[in-house]
UniProtKB/TrEMBL annotation:
This is Tyrosinase copper-binding domain-containing protein. Residues 402-413 form the Tyrosinase copper-binding domain. It comes from Cherax quadricarinatus (Australian red claw crayfish). InterPro entries: Di-copper_centre_dom_sf (IPR008922), Hemocyanin/hexamerin (IPR013788), Hemocyanin/hexamerin_mid_dom (IPR000896), Hemocyanin_C (IPR005203), Hemocyanin_C_sf (IPR037020), Hemocyanin_N (IPR005204), Hemocyanin_N_sf (IPR036697), Ig_E-set (IPR014756). Residues 1-15 form the signal peptide.
Amino acid sequence: MKVLVFCALVAAAAAWPNFGFVNDGTGGASDAQKQHDVNYLLFKVYEDVRDENLHKLGETFDPEADTSHYSDNGEAVHKLVKELKDHRLLQQKHWFSLFNTRQREEALLLYDVLEHSNDWQTFVSNAAYFRNHVNEGEFVYALYAAVIHSSLTKNVVLPPLYEVTPHLFTNSEVIQEAYHAKMTQTPGKFRSHFTGSKKNPEQRVAYFGEDIGLNTHHVTWHLEFPFWWNDKHEGYHLDRKGENFFWVHHQLTVRFDAERLSNHLDPVNELHWEATIEEGFAPHTTYKYGGEFPSRPDNIHFEDVDGIAHIRDLIILENRIRDAIAHGYVTAHDGSTVDINNSHGIDVLGDVIESSTYSPNVEYYGSLHNTAHIVLGRQGDPHGKYDLPPGVLEHFETSTRDPAFFRLHKYMDNIFREHKDSLTPYTKEELEFSGVAIDGVSIDGPLETFFEDFEYSLVNAVDDTPQVADVAISTVVSRLNHKDFSFKIDVNNNNDHEVLATVRIFAWPHNDNNDIPYSFNEGRWRAIELDRFWTKLSPGVNHIVRKSTESAVTVPDVPSFDSLIERTEAALSAGSSEVDIHEFVSAVGVPNRFLIPKGNSEGLEFELVVAVTDGKADAAVEGLHENTVFNHYGYHGVYPDNRPHGYPLDRRVDDERIFHDLSNFHQQTVKVYNH
């Protein structure tokens, strides 16, 4: 079926109309047309484009012919074309890493051209033209970033990266089988296995770090909130970007620890620059071009990485950041001080640690997170003796495959906690919601997880020519999922008027791996956010039902390449201007399959916490309950929730009786089963 779809659509592409230049912000193109173009620009990205119109544009378009179609009067396109003519761009069929400064600059040159295109014809013509001339990895990154951030493509759904660049997500043994299937013209469906063996305890949680949905979540978040973002250049501000950086990685860390407890492993230990890296890692993946991803042996000590950083430099940066936390302020580039001893401080600290262009003083505080990724990723060949390509930690797509990723982020997370614990705890008066009480919380349906098979296409993994027919090639991987359930929350509004409320749902493991209960203060730091949403409470008892599928922290699977193309062509054939795929526009949340941790066969105990807070005080924008689709991992514009991420559990709790005395706070023990 897949082969028939692709063959039919390649034939249909020949009839695709040429767009005229229409400088109306859309170029005269419908959403369906835009989806069609993006589909084919990314399909078989290492080969010639399989769309006649796009192929013609790629051969004949002159990017510099009419600069009136660019919002910067062609400044960006002149820069890129000059680099191209001077033969300074990275060659095609070569690996690409965003952490490589020069390669990132080249990718962003193309991104700037696309972002400054005034209409769709200019956008798609540039994309088709430079697809033929720039490195494929740079092209994919630039196009993904542009589609995410451009106003021209707000309704376009990007294909899943694991089908666009399968090499980054699929074991090399399976890729080899895919090549054999292609060469022998024999359809094949191949089983993927997680890296390592049962001799390695980390194998028990490989289903989490190597999950292609989680990999996609991580890279998509960094595309939505890139560290290179410049407000002046891009035209708008990414609200609370530094705090979002903290929260998304904090949640990955606590979720990973919950998975470890589900599999009888201790929580992950933080990384130390002067200590041994006990766990090695063999990625079992290869670049499309450029060799295998480097391995790291067990029990090695950190070494300086030539041309990147000395270990002592990272220790110095860490000490400067810890000093800033201790003093309660960051020293800005101009010598002024930025107060971080407040709710906004975590946002500043996140910008400093990552660091992004929002950092008040990157010259002094450096780029601890980004540099650490490179240094840890290069430990297999720190001095370039073997001229190895970048490691998995030098790609956001592959970082979480290495268990050391979570050790690195536990280290970062503990620095953030040092700041959070320095803030004054909330008082009972600050946490109360006058006249509102939670009468009861129950769960409709089992908290039960299971493993299922998931299939994705490897058609784009193999070399190709139009003269050789496609055959159906795919891989099947085991992944975690859970049965659907609903939270049923009874809330009594004793006020004589309607009130706006924010419902916040969390859970943390009841016991550590030694079966010792976590204190409230330790538990709340390990809390997994399950949902956050707004609702109106009428006077009297309100019965709230919230389905697990509605969670604001998760997203569904992005449709496969096959499905996206098939739906798009069906819409075009029917004369429709839209494709019914709007629910997939944002792919930045955690996979909805990962809403709850795995648990175990006996039932792993978790503390379920529900807090109902004052929606009027929480709201940063109007009409939240009516017009805000809230996904806190990827929200553009003014961030809708005034409260810090994790509120009301984000600050230390010296006396848990404060929470137990709150009528708008509920806590109970639940069990999560895995069968």
